[in-house]
């Protein structure tokens, strides 16, 4: 599939923002994060900005972005519509929780309930985003049991990295915050590795024989003529292909940036708790930036490695 930059930005930014909102809602309500006003302004500001810009970017890939609002009416049958409804609904409880934290520096009582409700809404939104792709049987790389878990754990991993960086920056660091990325980034690495292994080992979901109903066992089906003599929309959007020799090093780079480097830097933070505050803060910020860049590359690969079944009809003649 053609990796549209607007969708890559959307899945990366919204995942980061919702991951932060989930962790802020749960950890803030549990009293694991100090009710510091400056930290809350920065954390909620970053989370809401990432979510809002990501959702806006998701409309840029549409043929008519001005009609995006119509998607809300199809929530009974469309995961895209459910995502939009969940995304908008999540603003209310998370906004109320942020208001209590910033204005009154209060995260307990009714505000705690709002925080947990917002975390559930954010989790549901990321789940719906993953299901948009996992529910497409025509794209075997997405119709995969690891797709939704990958979206969820990557959102939590990137959110935890930025939360730890802000906690260091505003001097509200707590082991529950600064050490959390180790577990979440490691979990994301395991899930993503399982996804790629599944992608590499899965048999081809459809062939020319099964798609056309022609031929038989051991009898190949070959097209005499191509469907089109020149490039068209289907070939541009669904026929994008990345060579295996390029995919492998790109996967390694994505793993190094999204998982390897953040794990090393977070481990340094954990085993050197009394180190210079400025250095530990710099390492946390660097870890968050590098990790986010790695996730963006992983998102690009998620789209670039996927093939729609319709591309069977556009392969070179004689294959």
Describe what this molecule looks like in 3D.
With 319 residues, this protein is an all-alpha fold. The chain has a single domain (5-314), classed as Formate dehydrogenase/DMSO reductase domain (Formate dehydrogenase/DMSO reductase fold, Up-down Bundle), CATH 1.20.1630. Helices cover 67% and strands 0% of the residues. The protein contains eleven helices and no strands. It has helices at residues 5-29, 37-58, 79-103, 109-134, 147-169, 175-178, 180-201, 208-212, 233-238, 244-271, 277-304. The longest helix is centred in the last third of the chain and has 28 residues, at 244-271. It starts with a helix and ends in a 15-residue tail after the last helix. The model has no long low-confidence stretch (mean pLDDT 87).
């Amino acid at each position: 599939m053609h990796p549209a930059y607007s969708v890559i930005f959307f899945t990366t930014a919204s995942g980061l923002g919702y991951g932060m909102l989930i962790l802020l809602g749960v950890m803030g309500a549990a009293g694991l994060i100090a009710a510091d006003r400056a930290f809350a302004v920065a954390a909620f500001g970053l989370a809401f900005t990432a979510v809002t810009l990501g959702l806006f970017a998701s409309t840029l890939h549409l043929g008519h972005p001005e009609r995006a609002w119509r998607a809300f009416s199809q929530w009974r049958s469309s995961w895209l519509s459910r995502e939009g409804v969940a995304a908008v609904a999540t603003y209310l409880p998370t906004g109320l929780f942020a208001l209590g934290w910033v204005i009154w520096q209060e995260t307990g009582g009714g505000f705690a309930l709002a925080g947990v409700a917002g975390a559930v809404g954010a989790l549901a939104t990321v789940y719906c985003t993953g299901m948009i792709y996992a529910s497409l049987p025509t794209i075997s790389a997405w119709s995969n049991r690891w797709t939704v878990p990958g979206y969820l754990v990557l959102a939590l991993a990137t959110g935890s990295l930025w939360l730890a960086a802000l906690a260091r920056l505003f001097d509200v660091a707590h082991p529950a915050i600064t050490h959390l990325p180790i577990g979440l980034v490691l979990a994301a690495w395991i899930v993503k590795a399982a996804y790629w292994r599944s992608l590499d080992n899965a048999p081809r979901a459809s062939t020319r024989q099964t798609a056309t109903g022609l031929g038989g066992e051991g009898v190949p089906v070959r097209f005499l003529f191509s469907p089109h003599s020149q490039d068209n929309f289907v070939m541009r959007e669904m026929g994008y292909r990345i060579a295996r020799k390029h995919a492998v090093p790109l996967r390694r780079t994505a793993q190094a940036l999204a998982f390897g480097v953040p794990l090393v830097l977070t481990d340094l933070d954990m085993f050197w708790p009394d180190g210079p505050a400025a250095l530990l803060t710099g390492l946390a910020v660097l870890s968050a930036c590098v990790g986010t860049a790695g996730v963006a590359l992983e998102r690009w690969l998620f789209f670039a490695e996927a093939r729609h079944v319709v591309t069977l009809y556009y392969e070179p003649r004689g294959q």
